[in-house]
Amino acid sequence: MSASPIKWQKSSFSGGGGENCVELAVAEGGVIKVRESDDPSVVVTTSRDKLAAFIAGVKAGEFDHMLS
Predict the structure, then answer these.
(1) What is the model's pLDDT at position 11?
(2) Is residue 67 in some structural domain?
(3) What are the start-end ranges of the H helices in 1-68?
């Protein structure tokens, strides 16, 4: 029995032409996978809790200084 293929999800804020795309997927065991669509061979894995903490930090503006 083979594992189900991973279904990647792109943000609606990603560029329409495929640029600036970060994709997420949920793998077996609830592991979260993150990749850039222009280099899909590089995949970062994390947990739901760690991703939630990161997203909370983004929403709170903790990383805004990296955008300017």
Answers:
(1) 82
(2) no
(3) 48-59
Asked whether residue 25 is domain-assigned, the answer is yes
Q: What angle do CA 57, 58, 64 make, to 5 degrees?
A: 115
CA quadruple 38, 40, 44, 47: dihedral, nearest 10 = 110
Tell me the sheet residues that pair with 9: 24
* Residue 39 included in any domain: yes
Q: Residue for token digits 């503006």?
A: 61
Question: Does residue 26 sit in helix, strand or coil?
Answer: strand
The helix (H) or strand (E) run that includes residue 39 is strand 39-46
For the chain, which residues score pLDDT lower than 70? 1-3, 16-19
Query: What does the pLDDT read at residue 37?
Result: 84
